[in-house]
């Protein structure tokens, strides 16, 4: 028969795991490209990431050295990924890391910079096969999007996602395409968005497909035998009405 734990007990357990984020009793470390070292625990990080687990379980140098190098990833984004592995959350306003701790720079709710932060977390979660983190990053991205889509950060985050994910990875791509198609008139007035479309034809194609599909769903008025093409009064009708008013 299973044991039922109280919320207080579960909270204490969560706090105990979170406290390990500071590196105490560490048995595995991650070295970033700027030589930042993040002390971790195999029982936590390897059970959540199949990529890290494979490196430790296999005959790789990481298994011997108990150290994994992430030379291609931003230290601040690596820090957020590790934060999530210990706490099931991360701060999308963090801009840098120092050792094992994140340096928080809050810019308030709906900070446009959060778009790029969450896009980068999404990409690194995909790289290290942490599916739950991908979903959380997409959720955080979507939450700030309504008040931040009309900024340069939207275009920058869209570019990062489309450049670093495969075409079949639709979770965040679909969100970006939907918002862009919903606000295409305003976005076309932004130079960086137009540049984005020029650089990435695949984004433009997906947005155009979404806009066209929406147009196809609009009910077109029937043809008017008097000469109107279904788009309002015919020229003849407008002329007659104008003469009668005059």
Describe the structure.
This protein has 246 residues and is mainly α. Helices cover 56% and strands 9% of the residues. It has helices spanning 7-19, 42-45, 50-57, 61-65, 75-87, 113-127, 131-144, 152-164, 171-182, 184-187, 191-199, 201-216, 235-245, and strands at 28-32, 37-40, 67-70, 94-98, 101-104. The strands form two sheets. Strands 2-1-3 form a three-stranded mixed beta sheet. A two-stranded antiparallel ribbon has the order 4-5. Strand 1 and strand 2 form a beta hairpin. Helix 6 packs antiparallel against helix 7, helix 6 (113-127) packs parallel to helix 8 and helix 9 (171-182) crosses helix 12. Residues 96-108 have low confidence and may be disordered.
Share of helical residues: 55-70%
Number of helices: 13
**Percent range for β-strand residues:** 5-15%
The total beta strand count reads 5
> Any idea what the radius of gyration is?
26 Å
**Shape, principal axes of CA atoms:** elongated
Strand order in space, largest sheet:
2-1-3
Mean pLDDT: 83
Give the uncertain stretches in residue-range form.
96-108
Q: How do the helices and strands follow one another from N- to C-terminus?
A: HEEHHHEHEEHHHHHHHH
Distance between the termini: 90 Å
* Main beta sheet strand tally, sense and closure: 3 strands, mixed
User: How would you classify the helix and strand content by structural class?
Assistant: mainly alpha
């Amino acid at each position: 028969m299973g044991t039922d734990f109280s919320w207080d007990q579960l909270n204490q357990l969560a706090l105990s795991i979170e406290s390990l984020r500071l590196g105490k009793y560490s048995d595995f470390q991650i070295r970033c490209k700027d030589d930042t070292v993040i002390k971790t625990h195999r029982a936590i990080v390897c059970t959540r990431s199949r990529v890290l687990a494979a490196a430790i379980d296999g005959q790789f140098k990481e298994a011997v050295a108990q150290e994994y190098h992430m030379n291609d990833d931003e230290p601040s984004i690596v820090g957020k990924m590790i934060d999530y592995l210990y706490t099931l959350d991360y701060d999308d306003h963090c801009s840098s890391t120092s050792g094992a701790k994140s340096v928080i720079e809050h810019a308030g709710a709906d900070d446009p910079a959060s778009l790029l932060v969450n896009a980068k977390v999404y990409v690194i979660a995909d790289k290290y096969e942490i599916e739950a983190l991908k979903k959380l990053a997409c959720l955080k991205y979507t939450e700030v999007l309504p008040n931040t889509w009309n900024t340069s950060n939207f275009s920058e985050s869209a570019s990062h996602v489309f450049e670093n994910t495969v075409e079949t990875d639709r979770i965040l791509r679909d969100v970006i395409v939907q918002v862009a198609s919903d606000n295409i008139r305003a976005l076309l007035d932004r130079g960086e968005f137009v540049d984005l479309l020029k650089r990435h034809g695949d984004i433009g194609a997906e947005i155009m497909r979404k806009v066209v599909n929406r147009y196809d769903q609009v009910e077109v008025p029937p043809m008017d035998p008097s000469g109107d093409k279904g788009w309002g009064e015919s020229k003849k009708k407008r002329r007659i009405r104008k003469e009668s008013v005059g």
